Amino acid sequence: MLALFLFLILVAVVLGVIGVAASGLMYLLIIGIVVFVADVLLLGLRLGGRRGRRPAR
């Protein structure tokens, strides 16, 4: 799970850098931002769902 999260963060950063550096490829920056936001939301849902499954002590 963590490897997928880090891979998607890397993809988002690379798309963002290419989108900023290359003229006319601003849509890559937007795609990178969308991938980053989706990745953070996915991680939040995964971590938030695990809290309720632990038995009370």
From TrEMBL:
Keywords: Membrane, Transmembrane, Transmembrane helix. The keyword Transmembrane applies. It comes from the Bacteria. The chain crosses the membrane at residues 26-47. This is DUF2207 domain-containing protein. It comes from Streptomyces similanensis.
